Structures are given as C-alpha cells and as structure tokens.
Amino acid sequence: MTWVQPELLIAESAIDQLKRAASLSHPLETGGILIGVHAVQQPWATMAVELPSSSRGRAHYHLPGGATRPAVLITRAIDPRLGYIGDWHSHPADTPPSRTDLASLRLISYLHPRLPNPTLLVLRRTFEDEYELDARRITAVNPMRCAIRVTGDLPRPTTHYPLEPNE
C-alpha cells in the first residue's frame, strides 16, 4: 500500500480571513471553524469563521461551547453545499500544534467519525509578522501533516449541488 499525504484545499479568500482575524487578535490567540465542501475526497475550506471566545490568551484558545453548529447552519442558509471541515486557531509565535491541540483533534475525530476526518489548522506567526499555515488530520490513528493547496473560491451555487455537503 502506498502512503499518500493528506491534503487540505483552501481558498485564498479563506486564508485572507484567517490572517486578518489572527493579526487583529495578536498577541492573543483566536480561532473558529473551517467551512467548505469535500471535492474528490479532499476537504476544501472555502470560508473561515472566527468564533470569539472569552477563554483565550497568549497560549490558549477554546472554542465556545455550542457555537459550531449554529455557525454551520448560518453558512448553509447562504449555500446548502457548505459544511464543517474542521477547527482553526492562531499561535502568536511560530510554534506547531501543541499536545493539547493534537489531543483535541483526536477527540473530535473519535467522537464524530467521518471521511476524511476533520482538519486542524494552526496559523503560526513567524518572525516576519507573517503567518504560516500548519494543517493536521487524523489518518489511521495518528495526526498527519497535510499538504496545503491554495485554490480560488467555490463557484456560485447552481440548482443542483454536485459536491457533497459536510455535517
């Protein structure tokens, strides 16, 4: 069996949303959820929704309880093809996902199994005050680094929806 690196497709406009939210929040962490579709068995993040949290600081961010589903439903009202792709948050320093981040990814993947599993995206602030994207997804039992492929936006909806929505 040949190993294939998992991949995250992400719209350039979603990256802009992520970087803007992280920059405005700096030096505190912020985060939210990735919204999109699955295209050819790969998650395609087309939007990044920031979910403000009172539980955040320089070294932590926790999604507010009960905020994910309403945010997904709001985006589905705009475009029924859209659904949950995963979680994201910023790191004010150039540090990879923490053990806590990876444990949360394992828990989400265990509690809500789907193929492919949800993606965790961490924006790492570099020394040049830019952000690097670091995506991970559970494959088999371990979090694996995802290759990131930048795309354009999702085409406008038509009367039929050929892409699979996510729950």
Could you characterize what this model shows?
With 167 residues, the chain is α/β, with parallel strands linked by helices. The protein has a single domain (7-151), classed as 3-Layer(aba) Sandwich (Cytidine Deaminase, domain 2). 23% of the residues lie in helices and 34% in strands. An 8-stranded mixed sheet has the order 7-6-5-4-2-3-1-8. Strand 5 and strand 6 form a beta hairpin. The chain is globular. The chain starts with 6 loop residues before the first strand and ends in a 16-residue tail after the last strand.
Order of helices and strands: EHEEHEHEEEE
CATH topology: Cytidine Deaminase, domain 2
* Oligomeric state of the chains present here: single chain
The whole-number mean of residue pLDDT values reads 89
The secondary structure category is alpha/beta
Strand content: 25-35%
Strands ordered across the widest β-sheet = 7-6-5-4-2-3-1-8
Taken together, the total number of domains comes to 1
- The count of strands amounts to 8
Show unreliable segments.
none
Rg (CA only): 15 Å
Notable traits:
single chain; 167 residues; alpha/beta; Cytidine Deaminase, domain 2; eight-stranded mixed β-sheet; globular
SSE blueprint and pairings:
Blueprint: E1 7-11, H1 12-25, E2 31-39, E3 42-50, H2 68-78, E4 83-91, H3 99-111, E5 119-125, E6 131-139, E7 142-145, E8 147-151
Parallel strand pairs: 1-3, 1-8, 4-5
Antiparallel strand pairs: 2-3, 2-4, 5-6, 6-7
